[in-house]
Hints:
Layout: H1 2-31, E1 50-52, E2 55-58, H2 59-72, H3 83-89, E3 109-114, E4 123-124, E5 128-132, E6 135-139, E7 147-153, E8 169-176, E9 182-190, E10 193-202, E11 205-211, E12 218-222, E13 231-238, E14 242-247, E15 250-255, E16 266-274, E17 281-292
Antiparallel strand pairs: 1-2, 3-17, 4-7, 5-6, 6-17, 7-16, 8-13, 8-17, 9-10, 9-16, 10-11, 11-12, 13-14, 14-15
Amino acid sequence: MIAQSKWFYWFWIFFWFIFICFWGIVFSAFIFSPTSNSNPMTVLTWGDLAKSQADNETIEEAIARLIQAHDDDSNAHLDAGQSLLSHKASAIIDHVARSVYRDKLAFDRFQFETYFESIDGFTKTGGVALEEVALVSLNTTAILNNEQRIYAGAIDANELGAKPANSPFWLTRVKFVSTTTQLAYIMSGDYGIPVGWGFKIVNGSLYAWYIDSGDSEVTTEITGVTLTNWNTYKLEFESGASIKFYVNGVLKVTATTNLPTGAASNFIGWWIKTTDTAVRTMYVQYAIYDEDFFL
């Protein structure tokens, strides 16, 4: 009985100790709350606190102000590696199907794209052949100065081809069989008519090339390109400003002086000539052309 009485005695002492401590903590929370003098039931939230003793703007107000400043910043997220710059520089911007409506599209362009399903609509010489869909060959004979060419000409006899004022653009994929005794052009214009721009090939050397009527041709050598591989050649002509020459997506040359102002004799063409008595061959896979509507 004595042992049970001691156990009972200490149990109640422990019980009342816990009880008093618990309600003491609860009572203190109300008594010493920062808002207890005005309204002891008010719950103080973090966002309602002032930023500092020197600035009574609340944290919530500061957050709202900074978000608004960010929304108003036209340069937000445009630094290297940030989201808008990455989106802008992305090779593919994928939107939901049918999300781009007709009123967002530009219809002020003259454009065509060909995989050479047929070459009937092109002006060409006898050594040009359609090997298969998306493969045209220009084959010279083994005669010195033999020329072969194919080009997309003007719409009618009274209309010239590419015009610098219309900021023409084109892209094509080309491969050569040899890198000796040949002269070739990938260009808007015609070698025999001194107005044009594009790429010039002399034997195994590649050049950015352009010429205006009455001027000397301007060439800049492009290195690091294996002509006997398939390469993608792209030209961007910004009217009155520059001609940019790309190979396989890499900007190789930007020309800004003595730019052509006259119209070329065609939109885009391919031309190859022998400089010795050996057969030379040039292959073309496709072409894309774009410029403003005729001015």
